[in-house]
Amino acid sequence: MPHLNALQQELRQLAAERDVVILAHNYQRPDVQDAADFTGDSLELSRIAAADPHQVILFCGVHFMAETAYILAPQKTVLMPDKRAGCPMADMVTVHGLRALKAQHPDAVVVAYVNTSADIKAETDVCCTSANAVQIVERFPKDQKIIFVPDRNLGDYVARQTGREETMILWQGWCHVHDDFRAAEIEELRAAEPGAVLMAHPESRREVLDIADIVTSTSGMLRYPAGNAATTFIVATETGLLYRLGTLYPDKKFIPASRRAVCPNMKLTTLEKCIATLGDEWDDVLDHEVSVGEHVRVKALQAVERMIE
Ligand code: 13P
Ligand code: SF4
């Protein structure tokens, strides 16, 4: 763990007193990431939430991630420092809309990106993350009709990777951060940095994925430079990832594909709010608690367990 400042030490102290594990997504603010027990992508954090022995999880990420932790570990208390931190893409699919689409395609299975609410997961056959979406879809026979929600860009990428453009039905949701990248802007950056390698998150548009050297999850991007001799990388994902990349590879240069690529929801979590949750606000901790009704949880669990298997 890096050298901690006074606030980070205060948070670590509170976490130790209250039997809390702190999980932080790779897009979190640097000072929050540095104070966490674990950082990771959605798949890694789900796996840790399921296996970690602490009684309380302080989830520094967005709402669907904390919900997934609860689905997997209902015996634990799952807290968010700021419960307003949602994912606009997850909100683009509704139960009503998904049921209507299922009724139109009764022979289809539903694959849901983990960026969905528990209610949607409960309507789903299997969940996936950006790290395993291709493998999950490949488990189904080639002629199986698949409804994929909610990200049209990830769905399009998976359909093309697996040769299923005819059989995948894509919900038309998107992430405003990743959908905003443009190939033309990236080509300008590349022209100024000859030899730069482009790493892109699969929530980006097809035009960006088509020019990428590697398409992978946030943690995939953290690993990739280790095995690549290039010294400069253009990073097409939320800019929070650049902090860890810079720390892991101090001799390499990382350039954001766009300076606009900031997820405001991810930035709602601050060190001060983490401290308040475990400190002054502990008596009202219910305000921070994330849970799911048991009926929905049990149904959603099947889809999430198939994802992390
Ligand atoms: P990862 O699973 O790749 O960390 O992505 C989560 C996310 O919200 C991407 O925008
Ligand atoms: Fe959702 Fe996009 Fe933010 Fe990820 S970066 S949490 S997909 S809005």
Question: Secondary-structure map with pairings?
Answer:
Blueprint: H1 6-17, E1 20-25, H2 30-35, E2 38-40, H3 42-51, E3 56-60, H4 63-72, E4 77-79, H5 95-104, E5 109-113, H6 118-121, E6 126-128, H7 133-138, E7 146-149, H8 152-162, E8 168-170, H9 183-192, E9 197-200, H10 206-209, E10 214-215, H11 218-223, E11 232-236, H12 241-248, E12 253-256, H13 271-278, H14 294-308
Helix pairs in contact: 1-13, 3-4, 4-14
1,3-dihydroxyacetonephosphate binds at residues 26, 41-42, 115, 129-130, 175, 203, 217-218.
Bound molecules: 1,3-dihydroxyacetonephosphate, iron/sulfur cluster
Strand order of the largest sheet: 2-1-3-4
**Quick one: CATH class of the largest domain?**
Alpha Beta
Q: Give the overall shape, derived from the CA principal axes.
A: globular
Structure classification: alpha/beta
Q: How many discrete domains?
A: 3
Helical content class: 25-40%
Order of helix and strand elements from N to C terminus: HEHEHEHEHEHEHEHEHEHEHEHEHH
Low-confidence residue ranges: none
Keywords:
single chain; 309 residues; alpha/beta; Rossmann fold; 4-stranded parallel β-sheet; 14 helices; 12 strands; 39% helix; binds 1,3-dihydroxyacetonephosphate; binds iron/sulfur cluster
